[in-house]
Specification:
With 758 residues, the chain is of the alpha+beta class. Strands 1, 2, 3, 4, 5, 6, 7, 8, 9, 10 and 11 form an 11-stranded mixed sheet that branches. It is 30% helix and 25% strand. A hairpin with a 5-residue loop joins strand 2 and strand 3. It folds into 3 domains: 221 residues, Alpha-D-Glucose-1,6-Bisphosphate, Chain A, domain 4, CATH 3.30.530; 209 residues, 2-Layer Sandwich (Alpha-D-Glucose-1,6-Bisphosphate, Chain A, domain 4), CATH 3.30.530; 110 residues, 2-Layer Sandwich (Beta-Lactamase), CATH 3.30.450. It holds the Pfam family START. Keywords: Differentiation, DNA-binding, Homeobox, Nucleus, Transcription, Transcription regulation. InterPro entries: HD-Zip_III, MEKHLA, START-like_dom_sf, START_lipid-bd_dom. This is Homeobox-leucine zipper family protein / lipid-binding START domain-containing protein isoform 2.
């Protein structure tokens, strides 16, 4: 393959040199000769005419060329072809090989990215076992392989005299996050053949600089520019094709909040999303056509690919919430971290099958709760793998039950999800995967539980169709994603899907501004990037966990969450609360770094200050009340304090301090979590009086007034119970009030000394 590519590169470079020479000769002849009379409808003579005008007037406006005519459009097309070929096989762009690509015979191809050029660009070359015409047909169907493509409309098709075609195309793309507007493109696409039998599909934006018709106006999109890009498809002897791909775009990065600009300035992200995606799609279809890939379950590969596309499209629709799909902003009651949108006409974008089976005749629709946040030192692949493999850590069983019930004939049998409940175990059943295993489709079976005896009828297994991608930690610039939708047992090919999920996109390692900015279109509520460290229901913080340490800027990513639910009008507010608290914020707590790696420290829980501040309050209050130091810390830095508290051998845990409710645990160090046999996520569901035995509860009641008056109390040895029902003994317990910086009561802290399971 390398030998073929080197030969092809040499041949095409010679061809480009010859074309440049001929072009210069023609311009010289035209400058000295008389003006050429041309018929505006003749596509054969307009190339020389356009080149002559360009030579006489070097400004980019082409004032003497009627770029709206077929002849003028062909002139633009031929210029696009020449520029594309110089990028595909030459050095018009400073290319550097993309690191992290899989080497060897199974490699997808040779991939390079731009360096120091206008916009961002990526180039790839690969070998596939399909004929050029079939490859061209697949690549021109961009929505089938480019997941960010919302729609592609061919508004005009003009045949050329050389057997090619010119198309005027309007394309809309999805925004990857909730924090910036989506992009659209107005382009000219030129399909033609070269003398050696190669097929070329090249494309560029029509702008005031190039001339040509003006594209459709839009208010919800930012117009991006496609610089000369395309596909060069060369037939191979004995069958198959060599494909050269160039993607070169300018995404108008200055209209994006500064914190997100790395997403729009990264040629590696462009390479993964477009260039490599196109090669992988071609290779996938080639192997399916040859019968190399066998799928179980009796499903055809095309059907499974359609499921994957529908899941991605539904998730993108939810993240973007376009008004022309029927989405409108719902009042968020001050929850600025989470945007809530509703769609009262979901059949418009979900399909007619939803109109009768999913929504009651007396009013309802789809509600979406979505948010984006900036993460530090959490690799995207690691996070998505955690979310996939540990669903019980972040998914609320009541929410899953509600979603599953919405698929039934009586969709509102569960009027609203009940918080908590038993965590459901999951079984993952694989359906399909792509050639390089970078994406796989699967069915997830969730075991059902009954909350109460009357819920037994609803305690059945639930099923999710799930798409997971990007969990290869070595893939540079790859987006990691987990998207799922409830399905029923029948799992028909046309089953309605209402996807929810997560997308994690890496940012280039660089220091960026931390202030939050709203989306470029100005629509919707302010959305902060720091949901994970400001989890309380209320106005969000613009801080980042650990933002005081510049050394932490080496690994950043943007996480976007979107959950969709159907609702009845009279239960809309209940479903909104469930979506925010039971889904989005629960996930934000679950992805605290302490849950992802034992080497990472915990983030704060709802209603608490940040973990560093809480650690300082705990130690300071202990010293004030007892006159002793809780920890032996040489440095007074909060980070050192938190680390010692987290790794302390005794179980230390905080609980709420409310007179009208049972104390609920809000924080625990690692030993505390081990003693309770729980996680930071599930800790909030545990009440203090549930872990103490009867003797312990009596002692606490008798000592409670003492704790409140003098600030602390020593409690005798006793027995408590873990969340799994196992008895735990301890030699002594110390309880003290934690005061904030204003000396107001914040919470109650317990330390269980020398605990062990009985």
């Amino acid at each position: 393959m390398n030998k073929l590519l080197m030969e092809e590169n040499d041949r095409l470079q010679k061809q480009v040199s010859q074309l440049v020479y001929e072009n210069g000769y023609m311009r010289q002849q035209l400058q000295t000769g008389s003006a050429t009379t041309t018929d505006n409808n003749s596509c054969e003579s307009v190339v020389m005419s356009g080149q002559h005008q360009q030579q006489q007037n070097p400004t980019p406006q082409h004032p003497q060329r009627d770029a709206n005519s077929p002849a003028g459009l062909l002139a633009i097309a031929e210029e696009t072809l020449a520029e594309f070929l110089s990028k595909a096989t030459g050095t018009a762009v400073d290319w550097v090989q993309m690191i992290g690509m899989k080497p060897g015979p199974d490699s997808i191809g040779i991939v390079a990215v731009s360096r120091n050029c206008s916009g961002v660009a990526a180039r790839a070359c690969g070998l596939v076992s399909l004929e050029p015409t079939k490859v061209a047909e697949i690549l021109k169907d961009r929505p089938s392989w480019f997941r960010d493509c919302r729609c592609l409309d061919v508004l005009s098709v003009i045949p050329t005299g050389n057997g090619g075609t010119i198309e005027l195309i309007y394309m809309q793309t999805y925004a990857p996050t909730t924090l910036a507007a989506a992009r659209d493109f107005w382009t000219l696409r030129y399909t033609t053949s070269l003398e050696d039998g190669s097929l070329v599909i090249c494309e560029r934006s029509l702008t005031s600089s190039t001339g040509g018709p003006t594209g459709p106006p839009t208010s919800s999109f930012v117009r991006a520019e496609m610089l000369p890009s395309g596909f060069l498809i060369r037939p191979c002897e004995g069958g198959g094709s060599i494909i050269h791909i160039v993607d070169h775009v300018d995404l108008d990065v200055w209209s994006v909040p500064e914190v997100l600009r790395p997403l729009y300035e990264s040629s590696k992200i462009l390479a993964q999303k477009m260039t490599i995606a196109a090669l992988r799609h071609i290779r996938q279809i080639a192997q399916e056509t040859s019968g190399e890939i066998q799928y179980g379950g009796g499903r055809q590969p095309a059907v499974l690919r359609t499921f994957s596309q529908r899941l991605c499209r539904g998730f993108n629709d939810a993240v973007n919430g376009f008004a022309d799909d029927g989405w409108s902003l719902m009042g968020s009651d001050g929850v600025e971290d989470v945007t809530i949108m509703i769609n009262s006409s979901p059949g418009k974008f979900l399909g007619s099958q939803y109109n009768t089976s999913m929504f009651p005749s007396f009013g309802g629709g789809v509600l979406c709760a979505k948010a984006s946040m900036l993460l530090q030192n959490v690799p995207p692949a690691l996070l998505v793998r955690f979310l996939r493999e540990h669903r019980s850590e972040w998914a609320d069983y009541g929410v899953d039950t509600y979603s599953a019930a919405c698929l039934k004939a009586s969709p509102y049998a569960v009027p609203c999800a009940r918080p908590g409940g038993f965590p459901s175990s999951q079984v993952i059943l694989p359906l399909a995967h792509t050639v390089e295993h970078e994406e796989f489709l699967e069915v997830v079976r969730l075991e059902g539980h009954a909350f109460t005896p009357e819920d037994v009828a609803l305690a059945r297994d639930m099923y999710l169709l799930q798409l997971c991608s990007g969990i290869d930690e070595n893939a540079v610039g790859a987006c990691a994603q987990l998207v799922f939708a409830p399905i029923d047992e029948s799992f028909a090919d046309d089953a309605p899907l209402l996807p929810s999920g997560f997308r994690v996109i890496p940012l280039d390692p660089k220091t960026v501004t931390l202030t939050c900015q709203s989306s470029a279109d100005g629509a919707g509520a302010t959305r902060t990037l720091d949901l994970a460290s400001a989890l309380e229901v209320g106005p969000g913080s613009n801080r980042l966990a650990g933002d005081g340490d510049p050394s932490n800027y080496n690994l950043r990513s943007v996480l976007t969450i979107a959950f969709q639910f159907t609702f009845e009008n009279h239960l809309r507010d209940n479903v909104a609360a469930m979506a925010v608290v039971g889904s989005v914020q629960r996930v934000a707590m679950a992805i605290a770094p302490s849950r992802l790696s034992s080497n990472m420290e915990p983030k704060a829980l709802p209603g608490s200050p940040e973990a560093l501040t809480l650690a300082r309050w705990i130690c300071r209050s202990y010293r004030i009340h007892t006159g002793e130091e809780l920890l032996r810390v040489d440095s007074q830095a909060g980070d050192a304090l938190l680390k010692q508290l987290w790794h302390h051998s005794d179980a230390i845990m905080c609980c709420s301090l409310k007179t009208n409710a049972s104390p609920v645990f809000t924080f625990a160090n690692q030993a505390g979590l081990d003693m309770l046999e729980t996680t930071l996520v599930a800790l909030q569901d545990i009440m203090l009086d549930k872990i103490l035995d009867e003797a312990g509860r009596k002692i606490l009641c008798s000592e409670f007034s003492k704790i409140m008056q003098q600030g602390f109390a020593y409690l005798p040895a006793g027995i408590c119970v873990s969340s799994m029902g196992r008895p735990v003994s301890y030699e002594q317990a110390i309880a003290w009030k934690v005061l904030n910086d204003n000396d107001a009561n914040h919470c109650l802290t317990f330390m269980f000394v020398n605990w062990s399971f009985v």
